[in-house]
Amino acid sequence: LVVCYSTTTSSWSSRDPPFPRKLLTTNTCPSSPSLPAPSLPWSHAPFCPPPSNPNIGGEVPDDCVFIVTTFRASQGLSLVTTPDLASSIVSFLDDGFVSVRLRDHPSVSQRQQDTSTEKHDGRNGMGYTVKPLPGRGKGVLATRRFAKHETVMVDFPALLVRFDFLNSERFDPSAQRGMLERAVRRLPRETRDAIIGTDVVRDVIQTNAFGVEIEGVNHMALFLHGSRVNHGCRPNVFWRYSHRDMAMEMVALREIKPGDEIVHSYAPLGYTMQERQQTLEAWGFRCRCEMCSAPAGQIALSDRRRERMFEIHSTLGMAAESASLSKQRIDALVREAMGIIEVEELDPQLVAYHEVFARAYMSVGDVSSARSHVMAAEEKWVYYEGEEHSNIEQIKRLWEELDGLQEEVDEDDDDED
Ligand SMILES: C[S@@+](CC[C@H](N)C(=O)[O-])C[C@H]1O[C@@H](n2cnc3c(N)ncnc32)[C@H](O)[C@@H]1O
């Protein structure tokens, strides 16, 4: 159990290069020759209450509350997670390691400069404003034009809570609530105030949080601005998370004009209207986005296209297993699916589709077409999921299979010669 702690002074400076790379740390941990030198950045002693129901749950160590008030230019971060997982991210807490590209984005640098003025009123240079919107609570509106592929917002988590902590009965609801309230209460005042009020912490976590992983373990992340972005069935941004930078980035999927609401999809892309509504029910709201308010005929047409797209995906998937389609038929289906993806503006879907296209071409020995789709799949994964994307292994396997196929084709060619 982590019992000692240290106070730190942030090294953040978005205006003064060079950017210092170290936190100034004062340790309260007793030094012991038998222990490695502690490098703990927590601003308070970690809070590790005994579980309410110690007999429920398995091997996983109990969750504690860890707070680092200096995180990201004193926005602060509270973690409710296990000591091991908290330790695993210690080096990423240092502001000095954030990529300059993210650190100097206007949504970060302007936010810090505007702390004493009217912050989110659209005159702040951030490029967006947070405002109440009819029927959707608060939402985020663009205050300038964003080009396709441009980063609209960079944000850092203020609260990270291990997903299973919320689901397990090891801590009863009042103990859970107590830990969450403590996690918020100890954050810097501005951040704490922005999280609405400690009595609704759990609701905030349930409705405003993003899923991010620490060492492959799911955590719910609350972002001060990112969590204000509403759902849209035809989103104009997607988000990706960098573990190294501990940063979430929202990137424009198409041009965004001043006054447009910035929306991302809470449901997997490519779903039909009914599937989207069912998914959003789990979020506890009925969608009131532009696409859901479109005329019935338009919705039906979009649904038919999406169903057809999934049908092509499964036909090509089966063909890849059984080599049951000709190259001409694969060409035609790939063209049709790409057409639907373009019309329906589902480019992020291509991460999965390029892989299926590649495998289908491999089944008919068309190495060159397969290679172009593996390359495209890899590029899309990095773009949409970031460089640390979880499918790296899958893509590696695909490249290996492709190399194996290339060797077979080369050997056949040699035999023919
Ligand atoms: C992540 S929060 C978004 C910010 C939220 N509007 C707020 O005021 O904090 C998710 C909640 O916003 C509302 N919301 C988001 N998208 C919506 C939509 N398309 N239609 C209706 N309500 C929506 C729902 O209440 C949902 O539970």
From TrEMBL:
CDD domains: SET_SMYD
This protein's UniProt keywords: Signal
Annotated region described as Disordered, given as residue ranges: 104-131
Gene3D superfamilies cross-referenced by the UniProt entry: SET domain
One Pfam family linked to the record: SET
Domain SET intervals: 126-267
Top-rank lineage group of the source organism: Eukaryota
Protein name per the record: SET domain-containing protein
